Amino acid sequence: MSHDRAVSEAPLLRTALYDEHRRLGARLVPFAGYEMPVQYSGVIEEHNAVRKAAGMFDVSHMGRFEIHGPQAGRFLRYICTWDMTKLSPGEGHYAAACKDDGGTVDDVYVFCLALERFLIVVNAANAPTMKAWMQQHIAGFKATLVDRHASTVMIAVQGPEARGVLGRIISDDFVRSVGPRHCAEVEWRGETLFASRTGYTGEDGMELVIDAAAGPALWDVLGEDGVMPCGLGARDTLRLEAALLLYGNDIDEQTNPWEAGLDWVVILDEGAEFIGREALIRLREAGVRRTLVCLKAQGRGIMRAHCGIFHEGEDVGMITSGGYSPTLATSIGMGFVPPALAAEGTELSVDVRGKPLPVRVVLRPFYKRSKKE
Asked: How do residues 347-367 score in pLDDT, each as one tens digit?
């Protein structure tokens, strides 16, 4: 308890875009140790702007670390479930970082910038833990960890019009050259700008990293071109519709990748060595006792994290993420249930403030954008 209290009483950090948020009238809240905008004009308006046009998010609170050196790729293979040595310059991949017992320390995105230079993006709340964890394990490799967290800003520009706007602001040829899950660097106003074709909303778009001093100018230019500033509230509703996992809710140190549907980010190649490999092999052979499913409400009521999930009156699981879906106009949620109850169409109920809300298991994700390259 004393540790929690110490954390809560520590002064909140601010990103380099803090003054921009104040100027735009954002409602600021504590999040992962930072003072962050939860909304500007309103969650639903911001959510719809990303689904229909373009929105931008300050995601500078996310941890950013560069790994340099001849064994940078091998080090990232050792701490990640996916083989980062397979990445060529300009490619990126999502992965889990696991403990020896197969529990998830964090979910991360790794980008290969050059043969001996990588960028790893980690969750905001886990940034200090991941930094210490990486420092602990990098000693055995010819590689160096460079903390880029405070010296840069990270802006996510998302939505069907996002890349068009970025083409006007950066360079149309450059933006067109970056394919899905790929990355590149370009000069913008004398600064190196990193851009990846990734996001956390279910829409197309890019995530940008630039020197902290240049961040406000980039944010302002995007706003002047009509990109709507969006807060954490819309970021959560958008990622939930896309069934993207939130660390601390849907995955944590007690969750292994098999349970969370992350089979596709685990490479168990013969001879591969990474933290948690043996445990993950044992867990896969034993079979999961619970699995993460998508649930859609069949009545009125909003399911939230920690609501109980029931089947024929029996408590069978718990909601990990839940809320109202502006796109589907109903409540949606994710939660763990026994594998026997995970099939599409399974009828369950969720306890919402003492009342049973009928729900149905649906295919993941809830929302999928129409692909137009």
From this structure: 999 999 999 999 999 999 999
